[in-house]
């Protein structure tokens, strides 16, 4: 079973993503802060991380940099899962920072599921 | 023969035909003046008549003082100078007349002598009076003008000194004049900065900015110049300013006049505004994500089978959630148009593809309302220079609008063609239409044709205003043709080369 870590400071969004992805047969690990995500990947290697950007303390980009800088975690696919902002943010995320995907909230469950499927490679 | 006799003799001469004599003299003087290219207007003519009359009277009763007194009254009249010249001519005539009409030589001589003497005196007095008058008039004019200047200077000084905007004059890099407010922007007093090199008041990193402006000017690009730059306050803190500079002259040498406005507050408000909209967007979308996510999840049957009425209820909730999402998009988009950091992300855009994709995403919406959505775009429609995402938003709003205002069973048709250097996309519907008098207003923000469609169709009246803004930014046009009850056609014309600057 593939493992997906979802990082968001909103517990309801964590629950929603968990429900959608469990129904598709993934094991979902919920992290309510950037630090909790980093703690988890220090001991485990998930197949995908869904990362919110706007979070208190460590924001998504700080977490992203730490994950990419660490030899053990740099190859884990990371998709940003963030509230729609402007198009520039999205372009920078994909073209400059090379995130693996950029999913905006609100999202449709089918869309989320199909993108996750692409990212974990089936 | 004594003088009194002479005078009376002369008086006799005049008495016989005063009016005739007067008319004759005036005519003669006028002719004489005309031959010297002096235009004799009514005013001069009237003065001449009067002077001649006075002189005839004076010769008659020999009281020249009275004449002078009466003549004083003319000094301020226009044409006095000409009248004076006429007076000299009159003297000549009078002498000629005496010469002609008086028999005995001695009497003639005496009379003429007397006339000369008296006239000389008279002319002398007149010219002195005139000079005095002229001097007085000049003095008065100088006084008036001085008062005007003092008042004007006071007015301008007051305007500059009490202005809430900084004003200074810079000459050879030195501040040669500054008002209190200019000094105040940097926390200085006026005296502190007058005579100081202006560069000392600028943030070092922004000097380039200013020097560039000065170079432009030296290249002959004179004229007003507005730019934003950064100054340094007395305490070392930076201050954002907007400078409007124009060439001027100070003490006879070229200088630059600058109007300087502290815009730190505006900048701060702009930042607050941007972060406010960004927060609003985040705060609205976070709960909407959960709402819309669960609705869609339930609709997908992932949490158990739904019966017919549960399904319908969720579908209604789903549509409203999507609408709310689009409304947030629109509000954020509209607010970004007002922001100073706003700009288009230009690229090569296949308008036909963007329109087609947008239309496809509306298919279920149309189907749900039982509308036919027909897209008929030529394959080789040229691309345009534009902002793809915003052009998508434009088409989305127009199509949404057509679907919203078209009753079930109708059709929304999308067509396109090339027209000169423009690409034209037309969206026609068989909807309720827009009355003629409303057609010019529908692109205004928060406008809807009347309040009932607002309630009936649940729009905020923002969609078309965003369309107008987007089309304007691309240098294009948006037009509407509509018949009430029959439908509307929205036509978007986009220049292929994008907006010309």
- Percent of residues in helices of chain A: 40-55%
- Order of strands across the widest beta sheet of chain B? 2-1-5-4-3
Number of separate strands of chain B: 12
Helix- and strand-based class of chain B? alpha+beta
- Average pLDDT reading of chain B: 77
Q: Which band does the percent of strand residues of chain B land in?
A: 15-25%
| Pattern of helices and strands of chain B | HHHHHHEEHHHEEEHHEHHEEHEEHHEE
Number of domains of chain B: 4
Nearest-angstrom radius of gyration of chain A?
13 Å
Mean pLDDT of chain A: 91
Low-confidence stretches of chain A: none
Q: What's the number of structural domains of chain A?
A: 1
CATH class division of chain A = Alpha Beta
Number of strands of chain A: 5
Largest sheet entry of chain B: 5 strands, antiparallel
Decide which structural class fits the backbone of chain A: alpha/beta
Largest sheet of chain A, in brief, is:
5 strands, parallel
Quaternary state of this entry equals heterodimer
Considering the chains and any ligands shown, give keywords for the structure.
heterodimer, A: 122 residues, alpha/beta, Rossmann fold, five-stranded parallel sheet, 5 helices, 5 strands, 45% helix, globular, B: 501 residues, alpha+beta, Globin-like, Beta-Lactamase, 4 domains, five-stranded antiparallel sheet, five-stranded mixed sheet, 16 helices, elongated, disordered N terminus
Describe this structure in words.
- The complex is a heterodimer of chains A (122) and B (501).
- Chain A is of the alpha/beta class.
- Chain A has a single domain (3-114), classed as 3-Layer(aba) Sandwich (Rossmann fold).
- In chain A, 45% of the residues lie in helices and 20% in strands.
- Chain A is built from 5 helices and 5 strands, in the order E-H-E-H-E-H-E-H-E-H.
- Chain A has helices at residues 11-23, 34-43, 60-69, 87-96, 109-120; strands at 3-7, 27-31, 48-51, 78-83, 101-105.
- Chain A has a 5-stranded parallel beta sheet, sandwiched between helices.
- In chain A, strand 4 (78-83), helix 4 and strand 5 form a beta-alpha-beta unit.
- Chain A is globular and about 30 Å long.
- Chain A starts with a strand and ends with a helix.
- The model of chain A has no long low-confidence stretch (mean pLDDT 91).
- Chain B has 501 residues and is α+β, with helices and mostly antiparallel strands.
- Chain B has 4 domains: 3-137, Globins (Globin-like, Orthogonal Bundle), CATH 1.10.490; 166-262, PAS domain (Beta-Lactamase); 278-338; 347-495, Histidine kinase-like ATPase, C-terminal domain (Heat Shock Protein 90), CATH 3.30.565.
- Chain B is 56% helix and 17% strand.
- Chain B has 16 helices and 12 strands.
- Chain B has helices spanning 3-15, 18-35, 42-61, 64-72, 80-101, 105-161, 180-185, 190-193, 207-218, 264-299, 308-338, 351-361, 363-368, 388-404, 451-457, 463-473, and strands at 166-171, 174-178, 225-232, 238-250, 253-262, 347-349, 372-376, 384-386, 411-419, 422-429, 477-483, 487-495.
- In chain B, strand 4 and strand 5 (253-262) form a beta hairpin.
- In chain B, helix 2 packs across helix 3 and helix 5 (80-101) runs antiparallel to helix 6 (105-161).
- The radius of gyration of chain B is 45 Å and the shape is elongated.
- The termini of chain B are far apart.
- Mean pLDDT of chain B is 77; it is low at 1-10, 12-16 and 448-460.
- Chain A binds chain B through residues 10, 12-13, 16, 19-20, 23, 54, 83-88, 91, 105-110, and chain B through 278, 281-282, 285-286, 288-294, 296-297, 300, 302-303, 321, 325, 329, 336, 345, 389.
């Amino acid at each position: 079973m593939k493992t997906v870590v979802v990082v968001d400071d909103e517990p309801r969004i964590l629950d929603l993503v968990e429900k959608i992805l469990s129904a598709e047969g993934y094991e979902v690990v919920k992290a309510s802060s950037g630090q909790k995500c980093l703690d988890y990947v220090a001991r485990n290697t998930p197949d995908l991380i869904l990362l919110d950007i706007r979070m208190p303390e460590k924001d998504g980009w700080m977490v992203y940099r730490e994950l990419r800088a660490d030899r053990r975690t740099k190859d884990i696919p990371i998709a940003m899962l963030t509230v729609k902002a402007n198009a520039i943010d999205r372009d920078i995320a994909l073209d400059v920072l090379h995130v693996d995907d950029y999913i905006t909230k609100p999202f449709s469950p089918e869309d989320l599921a199909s993108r996750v499927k692409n990212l974990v490679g089936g | 023969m004594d003088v009194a006799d002479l005078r009376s003799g002369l008086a006799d001469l005049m008495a016989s035909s005063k009016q005739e004599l007067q008319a004759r003299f005036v005519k003669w003087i006028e002719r004489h003046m005309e031959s010297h290219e002096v235009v004799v207007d009514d005013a001069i003519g009237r003065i001449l008549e009067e002077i001649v009359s006075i002189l005839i009277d004076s010769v008659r009763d020999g009281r020249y003082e009275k004449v002078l007194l009466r003549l004083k009254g003319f000094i301020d009249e226009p044409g006095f100078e000409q009248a004076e010249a006429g007076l000299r001519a009159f003297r000549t005539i009078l002498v000629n007349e005496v010469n002609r009409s008086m028999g005995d030589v001695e009497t003639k001589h005496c009379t003429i002598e007397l006339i000369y003497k008296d006239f000389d005196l008279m002319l002398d007095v007149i010219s002195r009076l005139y000079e005095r008058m002229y001097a007085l008039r000049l003095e008065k004019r100088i006084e008036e003008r001085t008062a005007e200047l003092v008042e004007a200077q006071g007015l301008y000084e007051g305007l500059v000194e009490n202005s809430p905007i900084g004003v200074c004059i810079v000459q050879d890099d030195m501040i040669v004049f500054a008002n209190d407010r200019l000094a105040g922007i940097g926390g200085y007093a006026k005296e502190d900065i007058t005579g100081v090199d202006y560069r000392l008041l600028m943030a070092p990193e922004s000097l380039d900015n200013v020097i560039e402006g000065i170079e432009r000017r030296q290249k002959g690009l004179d004229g007003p110049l507005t730019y934003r730059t950064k100054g340094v306050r007395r305490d070392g803190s930076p201050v954002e300013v907007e400078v409007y500079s124009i060439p001027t002259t100070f003490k006879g040498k070229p200088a630059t006049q600058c109007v300087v406005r502290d815009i730190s507050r505006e900048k701060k408000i702009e930042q607050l505004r941007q972060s406010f909209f960004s927060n609003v967007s985040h705060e609205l979308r976070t709960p909407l994500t959960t709402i819309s996510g669960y609705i869609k999840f339930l609709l997908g049957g992932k949490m158990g089978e739904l019966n017919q009425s549960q399904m319908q209820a969720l579908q209604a909730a789903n549509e409203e959630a999507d609408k709310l999402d689009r409304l947030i998009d629109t509000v954020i988009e509209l607010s970004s148009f007002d922001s100073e950091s706003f700009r288009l992300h230009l690229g090569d855009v296949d308008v036909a593809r963007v329109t087609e994709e947008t239309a496809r995403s509306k298919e279920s919406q149309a189907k749900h309302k039982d509308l036919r959505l027909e897209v008929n775009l030529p394959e080789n429609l040229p691309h345009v220079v534009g902002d793809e995402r915003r052009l998508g938003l434009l088409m989305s709003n127009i199509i949404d609008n057509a679907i919203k205002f078209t009753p079930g069973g109708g059709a929304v048709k999308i067509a396109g063609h090339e027209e000169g250097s423009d690409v034209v996309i037309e969206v026609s519907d068989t909807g309720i239409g827009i009355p003629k008098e409303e057609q010019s207003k529908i692109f205004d923000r928060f406008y809807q044709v009347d309040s009932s469609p607002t309630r009936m169709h649940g729009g905020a009246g923002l969609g078309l205003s965003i369309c107008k803004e987007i089309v304007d930014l691309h240098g294009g046009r948006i037009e509407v043709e509509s018949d009430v009850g029959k439908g509307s056609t929205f036509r978007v014309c986009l220049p292929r080369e994008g907006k010309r600057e």
